[in-house]
Every structure is written in structure tokens, then in C-alpha cells.
Amino acid sequence: MIKFVQCVRRKPGLSKQEFAEHFSAYGKQVKAIAAASNGRRCVLSRSLDVEQNLDIIQERGTKAPYDGMVEVWWERGNDVVAFLDSGSGDEVIDDLRKSQEAFMDLPNCTFFFASEDD
């Protein structure tokens, strides 16, 4: 199983509510790309504003949680490679990148491919 993971921070000055609205619309775009590329699963998560997160930061000395996380799974890496190489998704990927620029603090986000270990 191959995953594409995005750990997302919101742009400075963007409220959590504004982020949630952008993130929801962004999720629709990501899910459309996942479906077009034979993605098996697509999940978007937003961090909770709970005391326990602050406790973890203070106890462990970690950074603040990401505002959101996106995970897209494919059974085979070839599915996503074929989609990207086909050019059929170029326009939707360009639109996705524009959406990212509108609400993400891109230099402080992390995007990566990963594999699941059994």
C-alpha cells in the first residue's frame, strides 16, 4: 500500500474557521483526484483544539500540531504514477496547487509518499 500524506499548516492570519472552510473545499478536490487515480481511500483530518494537545507540546517539547492532514492510499504505486504521467490530471492538479497557495503555509507544511509496513 502506498500513501501520499500532507501535513498542513494554515497561512498566518487565517482563522481556524477560515482554514476549515478552505480545507473542506480542498478535500473535495483531493477526493476527485484520488478517485481518478484509482485511490483506495482518502481521509482528511483536522487537529482538535483540546488541552491534551497543549499538554503533549509542553511535556515532550514538540511543535504545535498541524492544522490538518490528508492521506490518500493506493494499492499499487503504479496507479498514481500512471495518473501523473498520463497528463489527464494536469488541470485538476494545477487547480489543487492554487487551492493550496490560498490557505496553506506551504513552507511549513510537509508532503510525502510513504508505504505501510505490515
How would you describe this structure in keywords?
four-stranded antiparallel β-sheet, 118 residues, globular, 4 strands, alpha+beta, Alpha-Beta Plaits, 22% strand
Strand order of the largest sheet: 2-3-1-4
- What integer value in Å does the Rg equal? 15 Å
> Quaternary state, please?
single chain
Helical fraction = 40-55%
Mean pLDDT across every amino acid position: 93
CATH topology: Alpha-Beta Plaits
Head-to-tail CA distance between termini: 10 Å
Tell me the number of strands.
4
**Which CATH architecture would you pick?**
2-Layer Sandwich
**Biggest sheet overview:** 4 strands, antiparallel
For this structure, what is the CATH class? Answer: Alpha Beta
- Count the domains: 1
